[in-house]
Amino acid sequence: MAAACAQVCTQPEITENNLIKVRSDKIARVLLLFSDKFPCWDEETFSLAGVPSSYYTFLEDKGCLARDGNALILTEKGAETRRQIALRIGIPAFEISKRFTVEESLFSNILWHLVRRSLVDGFTETASSLNEKIPVVPACDRKDLWRRSASGSAVYKWHKSETIKAFLNRFPKRSAETKDDIRGDAAMWRWANAYGIERAMLDFTMVLRDPSVSCEMHINSSERQDIFRMKAFDRYFFKHIPLCGRDAIYDTIAMTQIFLLGQNRVYLSEYDEEGAGKEANVLVFITDTEDKVREISKKKIESVKHLNCGGKSERIEICIAAASVERLRAIRRKSCTLNSWIRENCTVLSGESVLSATAKVDERTTFNAGVEEAICADKRETEISSALSYAAHIHPGNVYANQ
Length: 403
Fold this sequence. Notes:
The protein is an alpha+beta fold.
């Protein structure tokens, strides 16, 4: 112990002059955690990443970081220092876009870390993206999405709208007879432009793409039109609902189902009798507090379960769940899979059978988070010294890189 203390005490003092020069400087490497994906950090997110408060306090004092509300962002000096550190170490350091909202970016950072730490394997095999904007084609007028019932819940209308009927007529469900029909993004836009169909934008706080067990045989199959990278992945869409407005929830459910319908009919349309449509689609609404989750769950919230087209019924139900940041912060047990994570940490509002149909078999038991925290504490110094590796994993050079 004395030797260890002596070793710590004899470490060279870190000053502004050697902030860039010392390659192994752990404090300087904290700047590499800033990226397009994570442009904002605060005390909580730094703590979740294992960064001691003295590190970012030092960087703030030296003018590399600045406060924007509750968040810390890079200053011009910090961005230049980050660029020079990356250059010295030999990794890319793309310029961070100025087009971000501090509150949204910080919330997605917190959510990413809270979910990651509550999974046994983190995001080892799971691809993640934050604040992803997804185009929804065809776009329906708000009045055609849903109407409010006498009880206050939603009655969906979008699947019976003329726009969707025209879409289904142009892009029928893939079959042996239509397997040679050319589809994809170009075909979608040719049809949309010809009929004056517009697109809507759907913003998700976080999207997780987890390799689907039921589609493992198709993981390596390439599909040129899979521009949203949905094939052979279970998809988990997280949406922050700060004010828990029920209208926004119903809009999001309807638009998510339209997006997925477009994926199945246009972008993932290779004729595949065995593997198509086996992926799970899960929509998770994230609130700030448990009170808001309880408020959301008071009303019936579900998706359209079946689509009737050409006299045939096609199942399109998605799983809908809700959780709060308050609940995620209190998680004390790690889940083995994302499906089990949904069951154990979320209030499932509807569509739980979607999880059952795609459940991954995992014989490992969950770990006690208290034990895990003790293990993490022992490894903290090692984790910080490996900040370069951590930064490389969350670098925006490849948005869908495994986390």
